[in-house]
Amino acid sequence: MLIVECWSALRTKRQAACPLCEVHYSAVMDDYDAADNTMNYWVAAEREGTTPEGFERVTVSAAKWAVFEVRGPMPDAMVETWKRIFSKWFPSNPYEQAEGPTLEVYPDPDPFGPDAYSEIWIPLK
To answer: Mean pLDDT, the chain, as a whole number?
Structure first.
């Protein structure tokens, strides 16, 4: 499934699963396979308690994280920040990406707005 289709499916399920309606969303990415350019990608929401029917639970373990601010409308601002992280930040720092998922966090209710704020979280070793 394409990432755009994941977000579209969430909008449909969100209407039927209102317990998730009042939270911000995240994308959780893991298990990247460079050979065929694929990864696991979840559209996620933080939640305590039971998991609503039709949804799955993903647990993100504690880690040391680099958190990067993303300012501007999606998807362009997110894509540009990812490029800067791997072309400038990692090469100029002693850190390496650790095993585990990376996160895109979207606390802004309108991630497509001109002043949107979001974050990229990368686990470090």
So the answer is: 80
